[in-house]
Amino acid sequence: MSETAGKMDEADKTVSQNGQLQNVDKPVVLSVSHVGKYFRLPTEQATGLKMLFINWTKGIKGYKEQHVLRDINFEVHQGDFFGIVGRNGSGKSTLLKLISGIYVPDAGNIEVNGKLVPFIELGVGFNPELTGRENVYLNGALLGFTRDEIDAMYDDIVSFAELEEFMDQKLKNYSSGMQVRLAFSVAIKAQGDILVLDEVLAVGDEAFQRKCDSYFASIKKDPTKTVILVTHDMSAVKKYCNKAVLIKDGEVIVNGDKDDVANRYTLENMRADKRDTDNDKSGEYPTGLNERVPFLHINALSEQILSRDDSFRFEVEYQYDEPNDYYLAIAMHDIKRGGITYDTGANKIKLSRHGHCKVKFEVPLKLFNNGDFKLVASLRTQNAEDSETTDMVAFTNDDNCCIFAVRDKRNRAYALLNDCALRITMLAD
C-alpha cells in the first residue's frame, strides 16, 4: 500500500484524479500485505541418499529459487471493482491463486473478509458426462455452496445463460459457446461477497457479450458486491474498474488510479513489442545501419502517453560524416489500425551539419483519436540522375524507432481521425 493510501482516514471519502468516488469509507474486504512467493526449480537431481549427502556437504542445493512476487501491497474495499493488470509472466496469475487460497504466500499475509468466489478458469470442474443441471450443482459444491444455496441461485444462472431447454442434456452435447455461457453464468451469479474473475469478459457471441456488459454495469453500482478482475483488456479496466494495480516482474509499479494503470500498461506493451521485433543482431551494424550511418535513433523528449491537446516532441540522433547535403524522411505508422498515418514524403528535411547530430521535432495530436503510433526515420542523399528523387542510406529499425500513444476520454478508438479533424454533416433537402 502506498504511503498516501496509508494516511487516508477511513471515515472520509476521497475523489480520485479522474473524478471517481472511491470506497475508502467502506470496510476492507481484501488486504494484501508484503506478500512474496517463490518456487523452487530443480537444477539437478540427486540419484540417491549418497549423492544427496555429497551435494549437501558441498552446499549444492540442487534447485534455484524463482521469485514470482515480491512485497505486494494493496487493499480492496467493499464495493470496489478492482483491476489487476500485467503482461504475461508478471506474476498476476500467481497472485490470483494466492488470493483464492490455492497457494500459500512465502512472505506477508492475505486477509479476506467475506465469501470469496474465484473463477480462475471457466468450466474447471465441469464433467461432460453430467447434465447441465448436475454440473451447476457440482460446480457450486466445489465453490463451497450448500445445496440450498445453489437452489436459490439456480434459476438466475439458467436464465442468464439462456439454456432453460438444455439443462437436462449432457454437457458433452453442448456446443463450446453453450458451455462457456453456462460456466460464465455460474461465475457471475454465484452469491458470494467477492467475485474473482480471470480473463472471462469476452465470452459468448455478440448478443451474450452485450448482456454481460449490462450485468457488469449493474454490479458496478451495487455497493455490497466486490469484483476483482484480472484482464489484458484496458478498455474493460477503464470502463468497469474504479481502482487497479499494475504488476511487472513480480512487483506493483502502479497502484490506484485506473487510467494511470491502463496507460502505463499500454506503454509497457509497446516497449516490449518494440524490443521483441528486432532480432537480427548477427551483423556488425544493427538492421538498417551501416558504415556510412553507424547510428540513427529517434528519442522521445516528451511523455509517451498524451492527450489530443498535446504535441509529441522527439529528436532524431544520428552519425553522418560525408561532406554532401543529405535529407531526413520521417513517417508515422498506426500500430493497431495499420498503415502510414503521415509521411514527410516530398517535404524532405534537408540537413547540412555533419558528425554526431541531433534534430528536434514535434507532432501535434489534436486530429487523432486514441491509438498507438510509431515514428520511423530514414537518412537519404540526392539521387545523381533525378533531382526529384533521393536514395536511402540508412533507416531506423524497430529497436531504434520511437513509440507513443494518444489516450483522451473525449476521443474514440475506432477511426483514426476524431471529430475535431473531420465531421460528416447532413445537408438540407
UniProtKB/TrEMBL annotation:
Key words, A-Z: ATP-binding, Nucleotide-binding, Transport
Pfam family name, one: ABC_tran
Superkingdom per UniProt: Bacteria
Domain ABC transporter: 49-274
Matches recorded under Gene3D superfamilies: P-loop containing nucleotide triphosphate hydrolases (3.40.50.300)
Residues forming coiled coils: none
Family recorded in the similarity comment: Belongs to the ABC transporter superfamily.
Entry protein name: Sugar ABC transporter
Organism of provenance: Bifidobacterium panos
